[in-house]
Amino acid sequence: MFEKYSVGNFKIHQDSADIEFPGLTILTGTNNSGKTSLIQSIRVLSKIENQLSGIPSLAFHKVAGLGELKDVLNKNVSRSECIEYNLYFRLMPSLNAHVTLKFGSVLQGNMQVAARQSDAAVLNELQVILDEGGDQYSRYQFILGEHGYTFTKQADGKTDVLGTVRFMGIQPMTSFPEIQDVREREKLLLCIQELSNLNEMFIRYLGPYRAVSAYVPDTGCSFLDINGNNVAEVMAHWSEKPTFDGTSFMDAFAKWTSRLLQTEFAVRMDSSQYKLVAIESGVEFGISQIGFGNTQILPVIVQILTAMPGDLVIIENPEVHLHPKWKADLVELFLYAASHGIKVVLETQSMEIINRTRLMVKKSPNMAEKIALYFFEKRGFSCEINRIDIKETGEMDVWPEDFLDRVTIEDSFGLL
Asked: What domain range is 216 assigned to?
């Protein structure tokens, strides 16, 4: 999965800063400042369609609230502009890749598509720069034309046209036989393999509206697209599977629910459907019979425990309906997952989550390299994103004017 990410011309993000994903990435800031928009941009990238004659396009309709291309383009740019993604991968210790994806209106493009009246955002250009350090790099481009994508290589000041290719998702359907150097071909294939992972199997999302036992039709045992619903079905499916640290799912689930919630849970079959029950003093209770906070935190725990190293897990407002202690204690799970290769992204306004993260850095300073904290502020039709570094002492290197804890501090002093 990518190590850094930015998006341009997407809603409020005319030109966003690079966001790093070292393990636990926390996005916070003022309302309407672009946090949700950034997450939406990642989500829609994981939902590429090939409905227009095999040309990849962004499926805005699959992400609630996005609308159409005209609704998504930044208001400062013209309709002829592209939504531009920049992704940075570490393919090997000595090999990095910078991938640029440009999605523009099919009405502005070069490809004669049967559905041109549908103003889809199609992939106009894919560029891959393979960087081995120093001056050793190669640039490959796939540019949309009338007969598919023209594949070129740029190196040593010259451009070679290598052929025309088709795409499946955002993955070129070729093994690049045009590239004679076997090692060079393998490096490009390694990068393309990373691009093929930009889907809902590896980019996982849990929204702020969660339920444990709601029935969701046509999901089977999938947990990837149900926004936290039907947790019992997920648990039954995963019961004997190993989690990211090698323990079985049910053992890991019991460990973390005991640690965070001090409650035992079990999966039962009821009328051909799985349901989740809580067990206290040997008595079983339906989820609706215990505190509502359980229905909000359990999907978070399950989503983390069913992730694998390399996955990107996005959780919006993990603090919703949770007691401050539960909010803070969740950080332990997030950082444990991050230490095993899971990339966790939180959009949060919770000072409890941020302060517990700072405290864990103070206790284990080497944990700081696994954490990235970003503050978002609205600036007209664009936003400003600033990284806040957490020092070994747990202090933050800057304290923005509208940082979420300032109001609490001011009110507390007002009560003195």
From this structure: 210-309
